[in-house]
Task: inverse folding
């Protein structure tokens, strides 16, 4: 959930804003002490902005983000230029000279779990304060012996919708099946699972044996910016694989999704093995993209694979019929994109570009996943500043040490044909099509990676996924990545 607030740079807004952040923090899961620390850090930041950033009237904006594992406050302002690196706090100067310059930022760092400053030139300054929510890990609730105990073989299995009461069993099931290697860390924290279910961020099914022991779990995560869902969390207990549990869960999930009126489902099927891809294919999912190095390296029990970042195949299941779409398809990728759509049962009409009218500024959204060390940029509209802003973003990402950057380009905008040429100059290569992924619109994904990926460890199942693998590898070589 996100809350957006725009405020005047006036001293009268400071205390009400601090009070709101304190109450919001408690509501989102912080203790009273942690909420007080977070609110104090916020107090230091906006007081500095109100008192020193604007010599005259001005305004600043605040975004509050509530994640399962952390809270973030992002403050944007267009006040006077300021470089915190030139105003570092010195305890020695404070004691000997009474010089407390930079002390406010030092307080913010001590009271938060992460404090990030970004100077964006003409776009102003961005401050990001992060506070982690301390939930108990499943290994703090149960002993290692209890967690590793495998349910006995079953005579029969029962499937039911997931409820908040299933959270601990799901976390135990994840740990038993993956150890510490499951890429979605929130699944080891029962409280975070409960929170996601309460807030309607996901729904799913759980499979139990005739002894009521949990052996299967499968959930759909609802997209935050489009009416689609991701079959994004799935696990079957090791000794109960090969019993048809995955298929049972998939069928039940698809029925639930249709009842909720979603337009489509997608899966990020890891390429360490082809099991998930095979299940997806059985239920009508079609491969549309190969995302290289999307997740950090994780060891999957029972599978031999190279020690490199994990790639995923995007499999998509349309739940509404679309017979034809009109898109601006880049010439270099025209044939493959048309084939991807044909595989989805959709005919593509490639719109010729006559004239392009660009606004001054591009409009896009950036999502940085610090856990996965990746960034996804979604372009909604193009401006004359497109190349400059992408170049600046890449410089910023490299400083942060990100391992992969992925850019979604709208296929209903004519400048996408030109944007592909620009991005290839910066080492981006083809990933595939992301159908209905943002605002119910189709996007072309381009990707750039900063670590070597050996394609021989990327396993694909469907004919289309195999074509994508060959094409993506060739395109990566052409831009000098491999």
Result:
């Amino acid at each position: 959930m996100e809350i957006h607030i725009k405020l005047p740079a006036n001293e009268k807004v400071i205390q009400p804003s601090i009070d709101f952040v304190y109450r919001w923090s408690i509501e989102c899961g912080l203790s009273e002490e942690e909420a007080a620390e977070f609110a104090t850090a916020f107090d230091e930041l906006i007081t500095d902005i109100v008192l020193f950033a604007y010599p005259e009237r001005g305004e600043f904006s605040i975004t509050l983000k509530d994640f399962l594992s952390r809270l973030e406050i992002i403050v944007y302002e267009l006040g006077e230029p300021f470089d915190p690196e030139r105003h570092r706090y010195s305890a020695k100067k404070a004691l000997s000279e009474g010089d407390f310059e930079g002390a406010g930022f030092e307080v913010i760092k001590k009271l938060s779990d992460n404090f990030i400053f970004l100077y964006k030139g003409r776009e102003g300054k961005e401050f990001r304060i992060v506070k982690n929510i301390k939930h108990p890990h499943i290994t703090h609730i149960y002993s290692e012996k209890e967690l590793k105990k495998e349910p006995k073989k079953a005579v029969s299995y029962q499937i039911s919708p997931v409820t908040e009461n299933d959270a601990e069993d799901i976390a135990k099931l994840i740990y038993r099946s993956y150890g510490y290697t499951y890429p979605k860390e929130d699944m080891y924290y029962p409280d975070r699972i409960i929170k996601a279910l309460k807030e309607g961020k996901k729904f799913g099914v759980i499979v139990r044996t005739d002894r009521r022991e949990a052996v299967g779990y499968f959930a759909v995560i609802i997209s935050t910016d489009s009416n689609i869902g991701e079959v994004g969390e799935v696990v079957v207990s090791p000794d109960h694989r090969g019993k048809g549990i995955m298929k049972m869960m998939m069928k039940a999930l698809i029925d639930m999704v249709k009842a909720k009126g979603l337009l489509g489902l997608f899966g990020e099927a890891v390429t360490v093995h082809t099991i998930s891809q095979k299940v997806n294919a059985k239920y009508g999912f079609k491969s549309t993209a190969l995302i290289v190095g999307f997740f950090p390296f994780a060891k999957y029990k029972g599978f031999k694979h190279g020690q490199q970042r994990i790639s995923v195949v995007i499999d998509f299941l349309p739940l509404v019929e679309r017979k034809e779409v009109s898109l601006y398809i880049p010439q270099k990728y025209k044939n493959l994109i048309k084939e991807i759509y044909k595989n989805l049962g959709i005919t593509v009409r490639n719109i010729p570009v006559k004239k392009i009218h660009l606004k001054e500024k591009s409009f896009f959204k950036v999502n940085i996943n610090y856990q996965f060390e990746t960034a996804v940029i979604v372009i909604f509209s193009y401006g004359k500043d497109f190349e400059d802003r992408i170049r600046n973003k890449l410089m910023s990402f490299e400083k942060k040490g990100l391992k992969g950057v992925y850019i979604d380009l709208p296929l209903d905008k004519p400048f996408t044909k030109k944007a592909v040429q620009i991005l290839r100059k910066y080492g981006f290569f083809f990933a595939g099509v992301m159908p209905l992924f943002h605002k119910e619109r189709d996007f072309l994904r381009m990707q750039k990676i900063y670590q070597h990926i050996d394609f021989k460890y990327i396993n694909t199942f469907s004919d289309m996924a195999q074509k994508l693998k060959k094409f993506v590898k060739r395109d990566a070589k052409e831009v000098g990545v491999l």
In short: The chain is about 35% helix and 30% strand. The chain has three domains: 2-132, 135-262, 324-478. The mean pLDDT is 90. The radius of gyration is 24 Å.
